[in-house]
Design goal:
Layout: E1 11-13, E2 16-18, E3 22-24, H1 40-48, E4 54-61, H2 78-93, E5 98-103, E6 121-122, E7 131-134, E8 137-140, E9 145-146, H3 152-168, E10 173-177, H4 183-188, H5 203-206, H6 208-221, E11 226-230, H7 244-254, E12 262-266, H8 270-274, H9 282-288, E13 293-296, H10 301-309, E14 315-318, H11 320-324, H12 328-334
Parallel strand pairs: 3-4, 3-14, 4-5, 5-10, 6-9, 10-11, 11-12, 12-13, 13-14
Antiparallel strand pairs: 1-2, 7-8
Helix pairs in contact: 1-2, 3-6, 7-9
The chain binds P-hydroxybenzoic acid.
Length: 362
């Protein structure tokens, strides 16, 4: 009898050998320096967590217009590339592997973050409900400007350039952020995409931008070093879709042609259902996508081992648990107690709540 697969089983991810099936999920931490440049403190944070099979670095701007939060890093300037080099070198020094998550926030921004105080861009002029945290405190969202069809090639080019910059910075691969209500997700879902051109309407049209971005990025990296993240049921950032199974089932199948490293799915959360989200069973995507599947969503050791053993996923990503436990695989292995995440310091500045979570001293 072969041993059951669990979180500690090695995994061959394309041409990368992962020593275990723990993935650190991309986490916004708002700790980049001036100019949205990562530095030594960020390098320390990621290097501390290098025992993960794979680290996915936080959402990172492809261009200045892609920003919607204070102190999030970019990958569009020489200084940012140099800053990320510190991170990748520190992780590699510790024997780890790290992908960069590339994002454009689209409408989840504000003129305060935009060059020349311009309006944020989106598929359609529909603002998210609520308020945004700016450098000057909370402000209501503004109605974004719909991208002209002739502006879309530039968005794709920015992702392509960011992918090239990530290569120069020494990453092992990149993840395209198609989740959580940011620009690519705004195109995918019909709650935010009401375009009447070839980027709106039928799912084939709504998925066009994501697929064109993935095509550009895989031309840089080859498919096996590119992942895509999706969140079919998420209501975060005021998102909805009238038929997540049709939308995301199509996307999962359409991604097969790129031979990707993985598809990374944020599973349906209780909070999404409370906010009117439609549940989508991850097995629906598992059956349509012919590659590595990473699942995310409140996993602990038992549930992680269980989904791997059942073949429901290949890898499991952990957010808050990795944030609070730099040595998470070791703690699971030893059944050691876990540090509790401190919500108050998730998005603050400095080392507190960032690089000072203790390693297990058993
Ligand atoms: C956030 O900053 O709140 C955030 C960023 C990226 C995500 C989700 C949440 O994918």
């Amino acid at each position: 009898m072969t041993a059951e697969i669990n979180l500690f089983s090695p995994y061959q991810l394309g041409d990368l050998q992962l020593p275990n099936r723990f993935v650190m999920a991309p986490l916004t931490r708002n700790r980049a320096g001036a100019g949205n440049v990562p530095g030594e403190m960020n390098a320390t944070y990621y290097a501390q967590r290098a025992s993960a099979g794979l680290l996915i670095a936080e959402a990172t701007q492809t261009t200045p217009e892609a920003q919607g939060y204070p102190f999030t890093p970019g990958i569009h300037s020489p200084e940012q590339i140099a800053g990320w080099k510190l991170v990748t070198e520190a992780v590699h020094q510790q024997g780890g592997r790290i992908f960069l998550q590339m994002w454009h926030v689209g409408r989840v921004s504000h003129p305060d973050f935009q060059p020349n105080g311009a309006l944020p861009v989106a598929p359609s002029p529909i603002p998210p409900k609520g308020e945004i945290f700016t450098f000057a405190g909370m402000k209501p969202y503004v109605t974004p400007r719909a991208l002209e069809i002739n502006e879309i090639p530039l968005i794709i080019q920015q992702f392509r350039q960011a992918a090239q910059n990530a290569q120069i910075a020494g990453f092992d691969g990149v993840e395209v952020h198609g989740a959580n209500g940011y620009l690519l997700d705004q195109f995918l879902r019909d709650g935010t995409n009401q375009r009447t051109d070839e980027y709106g309407g039928a799912v084939e049209n709504r998925a066009r931008l994501l697929l064109e971005v993935v095509e550009a990025v895989t031309q840089v990296w080859g498919g096996q070093r590119v992942g895509v993240r999706l969140s079919p049921s998420s209501t975060f950032n005021d998102m909805k879709d009238s038929n997540p199974l049709a939308t995301f089932g199509y996307v999962a199948e359409a991604l097969n042609r790129f031979g990707l490293a993985y598809l990374h799915v944020i599973e349906t959360l209780e909070s999404d259902l409370r906010h009117g989200g439609t549940a989508l069973d991850t097995r629906e995507l598992r059956s349509r996508f012919q590659g590595t599947l990473i699942v995310n969503g409140g996993y602990n050791r038992e549930r992680g081992d269980a989904i791997l053993a059942s073949g429901g996923a290949d890898l499991v990503s952990f957010g808050q648990l990795f944030l609070a436990n730099p040595d998470l695989p070791k703690r699971f292995e030893l059944n050691a107690p876990l540090n509790q995440p401190d919500f108050a310091t998730f998005y603050t500045s400095g080392a507190k709540g960032y690089t000072d979570y203790p390693f297990w001293q058993g």
